[in-house]
Design brief:
UPF0434 protein ACG0Z3_10025; about 70 residues; Trm112-like
């Protein structure tokens, strides 16, 4: 997604800022709200900004370092 578009979008619940999740942070690309602890999926390049489409997201677990393999 275009960074300018991400900066214009806000959480539909609290109107707070969103963070783009991708790669190891999410199964699918998503926009996450740290305050509400929700991730809104992005499908076919379109963010689904509906509360019913959101899934729980734990920002502390996402920022924790991954354990090293033995």
């Amino acid at each position: 997604m275009d960074q300018r578009l991400i900066e214009m979008l806000v959480c539909p619940l609290c109107k707070g800022p969103l963070t783009l999740l991708r790669g190891a942070e999410a199964d699918l690309p998503a926009l996450a709200c740290r305050a509400d602890r929700l991730a809104f999926p992005i499908r076919d390049g379109i963010p689904l900004m509906l509360e019913s489409e959101a899934r729980p997201w734990d920002p502390e677990a996402a920022s924790a370092p991954l354990p090293l393999a033995p």
